[in-house]
Amino acid sequence: MKRIACLLALACASTLAQAESPETYHYGMHLDVAKVISQTLPQGCQVGEARMVYLDSKGERHTLIYQRIGEDCRY
């Protein structure tokens, strides 16, 4: 029973260690995006904060924050 509890605690700790802090995009920043996991886009015609979670070519998970116009804006 102690072994199961120890393994469970270790699994939880490794998950917390992998929690990444978001990066804010700046012009000219090199991005290594191999796979997009999720994307949150602003609404309307105002520029707002978008968020993209992706995996790089090494399989590491990243969160990127950037500015863009809303996805449902029609001119």
From TrEMBL:
<keyword id="KW-0732">Signal</keyword>
<dbReference type="InterPro" id="IPR021245">
    <property type="entry name" value="DUF2790"/>
</dbReference>
<feature type="signal peptide">
    <location>
        <begin position="1"/>
        <end position="19"/>
    </location>
</feature>
<protein>
    <submittedName>
        <fullName>Uncharacterized protein DUF2790</fullName>
    </submittedName>
</protein>
<dbReference type="Pfam" id="PF10976">
    <property type="entry name" value="DUF2790"/>
</dbReference>
